[in-house]
Design a protein that fits this description.
- There is one protein chain.
- α1 packs across α2, α3 packs parallel to α4 and α6 packs parallel to α7.
- Helix content is about 45%, strand content about 15%.
- It contains 13 helices and eight strands.
- The chain has about 290 residues and is of the alpha/beta class.
- It has one domain: TIM Barrel, CATH 3.20.20.
Length: about 290
């Protein structure tokens, strides 16, 4: 298990010229660690990996590992829709001393389940790092079937899955069939508690960019058998979670962070600026939660 509890899928901050803002990235990392987050996931969906250049990805990973300095695990998103390129990035991340890899399903190609198995097994065989699969069919149009997850879980360094399918029946079936050493993490902030109750080990979170302490507390409450308080915390933040997905992630979370004064910059095209209507929805929700 790479981590247990809440990990943050950290945003990649940009300056006014849309360059990576490393000074700000350091501030964000320190904020996360000081508030008890259990791992940092860099260059994921929330980190806009798809619009970072190859060199930017490598430098963001290198810098994050340097700043974190082994205080918590650093997990690098190195999955792409090109197996050879994913292997190249994964090998690079390993040389940069990350603690694990997060590998999204190949998007656009729409490969078969056998193609998924071969893709992941090729990457796993190219590195010694622990790997977390990432299933998010709403973005990739590819779902990792239960039997494929079970098959992949037998590869020694494939140690878990980030499940963002929203399909609790599928998640329950996965957990009923994999070995207990295989970790399943929620990829949806509104399903942390339901997934923990089925045997999940935590969450790779978006909302923890602004609420790391509260997100990790939800997990800790459950692990300490205080399920009622965990339930109350999950339900308390549902409206805020919903507002953070009123447009495609990470547009709202970056807008939210800018409203709150984190100054993380905008998103890179083709992700556009949040609409005025949705910004107002976000502001109204933040006021309701006394965050502004």
């Amino acid at each position: 298990m790479i981590f247990k509890g809440a990990a943050t899928a950290i945003v990649t901050p940009f300056d006014n010229n849309s360059n990576v803002n490393y000074v700000k990235l350091k501030e964000l990392i320190e904020f996360q660690i000081s508030n008890g987050i259990k791992a940092i996931v860099v260059c994921g969906t929330t980190g806009e990996a798809s619009t970072l250049t190859n060199e930017e990805k490598k430098e963001v990973i290198r810098y994050t590992v340097k700043i974190v300095n082994k205080r918590v695990p650093v997990i690098a998103g190195t999955g792409t829709n090109n197996t050879a390129y994913s292997i190249e990035l994964s090998k690079c991340a390993e040389k940069l001393n990350v603690d694990g890899l997060l590998l999204v399903t190949p998007y656009y190609n729409k490969c078969t389940q056998e193609g998924l198995y071969l893709h992941y097994s090729e990457i796993a065989n190219s590195v010694n790092l622990p790997i977390i699969l990432y299933n998010v069919p709403s973005r990739t149009s590819v779902n990792i079937a239960v039997d494929t997850v079970v098959r992949l879980s037998k590869i020694p360094n494939i140690v878990g899955i980030k499940e963002a399918s929203s399909n609790l029946s599928q998640i329950a079936e996965i957990l009923s069939k994999v070995d207990e050493t295989f970790s399943l993490y929620s990829g949806n902030d509104d399903q942390i508690l339901p997934i923990l109750s089925l045997g999940g080990k935590g969450v790779i979170s978006v909302i923890s960019n602004i609420l790391p302490k509260e997100t990790n507390k939800l997990c800790e409450l459950y692990f300490n058998n205080d399920t009622n308080q965990a339930k109350l915390l999950q339900l308390k933040y549902l409206k805020l979670i919903k507002s953070l997905f009123v447009e495609v992630n990470p547009i709202p979370i970056k807008e939210c962070m800018n409203i709150l004064g984190y100054n993380v910059g905008g998103t890179r095209l083709p992700l556009s600026k949040m609409s005025d209507t949705n910004i107002q929805i976000l502001k109204d929700t933040l006021k309701e939660f006394n965050l502004i």
